[in-house]
Every structure is written in structure tokens, then in C-alpha cells.
Amino acid sequence: MFIGVAVIAAVGMLFSAKDTYLKLLNSVALVLLTLSGGWTIRKTLSQGSYAYGTGIFYWDALSALLLGVIIMIAVYVILFSFGYMEEEVHEKKFPRTRLKWYYFWIWIFMATMLLVVSTPNLGIIWVGIEGTTLATTLLVGFYRNKQAIEAAWKYVILCVVGISFALLGTMLLFASVAPLLGQSLSALDWRMLPKVAGQLDPTLFRLGALFAIVGYGAKVGFAPMHAWLPDAHSQAPSPVSALLSAVLLNCALYAILRWYSFARLTALGPDFVGTILMSFGFLSLALMTGFILLQKDIKRLLAYSSVEHMGILAIGFGLGTKEAVWGASLHLLLHGLTKANLFVIVGRLVQKTGTRQMARIRGIFKVLPYTGMIMVLGLLSITGTPPFGTFRSEVSILSGLFKTGHPLLGFFSILFLTVIFAGFLYHFLQMLYGKPSSRHQPGESVSTLALAIPLLVVLFLGMFIPQSLNQALNQVVKVILGGV
Amino acid sequence: MIGISDNELNLVLLVLLVSGLIMVYSARVKNALNWWTLQTVFVSLLLIAEGYHNHAIEVIIFGVLLLVAKAGVIPILLRRVLKESKTEWVGEIYLKRALSLVFAGGLTLIAYEVTEPLMALHSGYRNGLAVAFALIFYGLLLMMARKVAIVQVLGILLIDNGIFLAGFFLTQGMPLLVELGAAFDILVGIVIIGILSKQMLENYDSLNVDHMRSLKG
Question: Transmembrane ranges (chain B) (predicted)?
Fold first, then answer.
């Protein structure tokens, strides 16, 4: 039903001639989305799963987690968009008439992501993920300048090719499942797959799983397929960067997790996909360390940090121990919140200072004190510093590495994370202190602090995890590991 | 299963493979596009023949839709972009055409090699599956070795045909909903790429991707 809300909202945007209508329509759509989505999540978590419309739509704890992340971040980012895009229009970045197209594509993007997490069918998930690429291409290239178009082009070409490999993987899966479950749509239903997983042909399935993970992995941004990611994230309007980084990557990861959860039951054994995930994860973490240290552009810095965090998630899920998967599920939520907040606050900063070059941003505390405060919170959260929640989730992932007998991997992961922390600290401190350039107009209102809500949630979750959330996360672990 | 004899099937496969090779060898984008269109017509006909044989009306309808959308709408769209951008040359920088053909030959062998383990399951479709994988590899080759944006799109379209064929021979048709979704996605994708290349023209005055080197590090 919320998919319907998103589609109707998207079409409605095109007919909203006036700004006030646009804002009104967006707000109504957000309220409806939150209500229907929240209701679905509650229902799903209390019953363990929830089917709608004879099983065309189906949610379990994992879908509910993703649904929650999508809705929370969408509300935050779209509300921020109002002021931000207004300012961009003022600065003549694009004509006012194109504002409605911005919201149109945002809501189409929302609809495709909601479809991905609401369907129990791996084929439809593929259609949805491909849809997210198409919906965001024109958002990435929204400013229509040379760099934006270059980024959009790289993005669409790389992701479409990557995703088409995932289609090939899905076909190979279908070829191996169809003799067992019949030539129908339900053969790709992930509720059915665990029942026949043990009998799947290993050769066919191995090839299929490889294609699917590499294909979706390109969309998640695993190194070495991450080339599109920093370009797209740095050139898109900042609210879009926030959505891309905080939800889109998670949605692609969700597709991999669906494959992973039944691949564990096949003849290939539980470790086959897990090992691939861990290799991608570790490679991403290792490579990004260098990029983060040497970065000059603040939005690219955040983009590379997203790749790094996707790597951490992949290690956590790939390990497959209860504790690590619990940590990774929590980290998925916390990274989403943190990164959305950082992109939003950095987007504002870039708008005020007029540059993305970190070397030219100085003395934030003097000119924009509240923005500076939020950036400190963001810095601590993104690097996994206690008492933020990200510390807790990263520790439970990393301790999994040691417990399962990968002390060397564990050691290097901690080393890389420490270096990344140093890199972030260096970049941020340079921007926060120093002599501000005269171009900045000093002063901002206290209401800026309202933008820090997601980070405060992350901080809160670091000190106290409510019983209901813990139960939900345990349900997610059960879904992924198959009732262990 | 498909309703045409092995000989005829092999003939169709030959057309598909050769049209792929000619695309790799083409010096002009327009020729490559025409050969891709021909290839797509044959792929759709294969689907329609199967639907006719199995008396599956929905498969026939889907085949016809595919014929109209992929062999009709996409070439028209791309031809318009080509005309506006005055693009003719495919932009062979790294690999000259003759050498590309040699590479493509090698890739065909690899395609046979890769599909070897799958053959035990579907002995009747040995060539079909291998040709499908060969087309996917040609598409990748085109995307990497050519410098004109539209040729990269042709690479994607070639990969798309290859994947479609692979699905056809592996599974005798995916669930219709997924097939429809996939076809719709590629159509929308081409429209969006068309819009994007128009914006690219406004900014760069050409569709050569060599200009796009500003984003690094």
C-alpha cells in the first residue's frame, strides 16, 4: 500500500504547479508512508511475518528492518530537501520549474526501494533493484553540468551491466529450481527455496550465486566494483547522496542477504557465499583506507566511507555467527542514520561555503558553530567511537572475527579502522578550526541543531538498546541464519 | 521443446553469433545498430516460435511486445541520438577492429568452456547456451574497447540479448512477470540513457567518453 502512496505521490508532484502544493503533497505522502509503513513493521514484528494480498507482498523481520530504515531516512531527507532545494534554486543551480521533477524521481526511487523490500520473490527483487538504478540516474545528473553528467553516465552504465549479471544469476537459480518447484513465479519465492535448497544442483547454483553476488555487489559498491560510487555520491544533490548512501546501498545488500540466507542450506555449505562476502568486505575496507586518507573532496570522503562501511557489513554478515550478524544488522541501521545525517549536514556546509574542497573550508566553529557541533557528533559516530551505537555494532562484528579463528583478519580490520579514524579526525579538525575565509557569512540559527536527530538516536542506541529493538534484531538474525 | 528442428535452430544461432561478430567488427555505429536490430528480431522470433509450438498465447504476446519494443522503439530512439550528435565512427582507440575480431573469437572459445559444466544438464542446447555467453562477452568487449557513448549502450544491449538467450535456453522462459519487468526496465533504461546523452551533447558537443575524465580519486 505504501508503494501505491509513493507512486501516487510521484505522479502528483508533476501536477503541482506551486511550491506550496509540492510541500503539502510531500508532507501528506510522508505521513501516509510513515503510518502505513509503521503499521506494517509492527504487525510483522509481533507476528514474525506478515503477508498481504495472498502473499504477493510479504514481510519478515529482515524486510521490516530495511523498511524501517527506508522510512526513517526518507522522512528526514525529504523534509531537509524543502529548504535545501529552495536555496539551490535561489543560487540558480537549476530553474524552479524542474523542482517538481526532482520530487517526482525521489518518489519513484522510493517506490522501487519499497518494492524491493516488500516482495518475497527474487525475480521481482531484481526488477526493483534495476528500477532503483533507473530512478536515480537523472537525480545523480540533476545539475546537468559536465561533472554531474559524467557521474550519471558512469553510474548508469556500470550499474546496469552489474545488475544484468544479477539477472543471469537469477536465471541460473531458476534453471536449478524449476525442476523441483515447477516453472512458475513461486519457484523464485524465497519462502519456498529453503525447502528444496538441499537438492539444488551445485554446479548450476554455484555459478548463479557468483553472478548474483558480483552483480548486486557492484550496486552495493564493494571494491573493486565501487568506481561509480564516489562520483555519483559527490555529484548528486546532497539529499540524494544521503538517500543513495544510507538506503540504496542497503537495499542492494538486502538482495544479497536473501540469496545468502538460503545459499547457506545448499550442498555448497554455509560458508560458500559467506567467504565471498567476507573477501569483498575485507577488500573494500582495505582499499578505502587509502582513499579516505588522501581525499580532498568532502563528499567523496563520505562516499568512500560508505564503501568502507558496506565492507564492514559484508564481513559481519559473511561471518555468519549469531553475534556478528546481530552486530551487522544493528550496524546497517546505525550506518544509515549516521551517513544520512552527515550527508545532510555536509550538504548544508557545501551550500554555505560554496566549495567541496576540504582545503578551502576552514574555521567552521567560528562561522557555523551549530553545524560544527553536529559534525563532531558525526565524526565520532562514523568512526565508531564509544559511546556511539556504531562502536557497539562494530565491536560485535570484529569480535566475531577473533572468535571464529581469523585473528589476522581481525587484527588488520582494527588496524584499518584505526587509520580511517585518524584520517577522518585529521580532515575534520582541519575544517573545524583555523581561520575562516572571508567569503563565509557568519552566524546561523539554533534550529540547525534539529538536523542532528538521527545522530542523537545513534548516540542513544550506543548507551541503551530497547528490549523491542533487541528482539527485532534477534528475529533478523534468525531469518538470515535460518532459525539457528 | 522449441518447435523447430535442430538444423533450423543452429541456423538461427549462427545468425545471432555472426551478427554479434559483425557488431564487434563494425566501423560505423549505424551498421552495428542495424545488426543488433536484426539480432533482436531473431531472438524475438525464437520466443514466438516456442510460444506457437507450446500453444502458449501469453508467450506469443510477450514475443510480439518484445519485437515492437526492442527491435522497434530502441533502434528509433538510438538512431535519433546518432543523427543529432552526428556520430558515425565507433571510436576504436585501444583495440583496432581486426584485433577485436580475434579477441571475439577467443571469447567464443571461452564461452564454450564456461558453459561446459552446464551442458550435462541441458545437452540439447549446447550451442545455444554457448552463443548466449559469447554475446555477453562481446558486449563487454565493446563496452571496454570503444570510446563512443552510444557504442557502450550497444554493448549493454548486446549483453541484454545474450542474457535473454541464456535464460531462454536454460529455463525455457523465466516467469512472465519477471520477463516483463526485465524488458520494461531495459526500455526505460534506454530512454533515460537517451535523455542523458542529449544532456551530454549540450555540455560536450560530442558523445566521446574520452572527455569525461574529470572525476578521479
Answer: 12-28, 35-53, 59-82, 94-112, 124-142, 149-170, 176-196
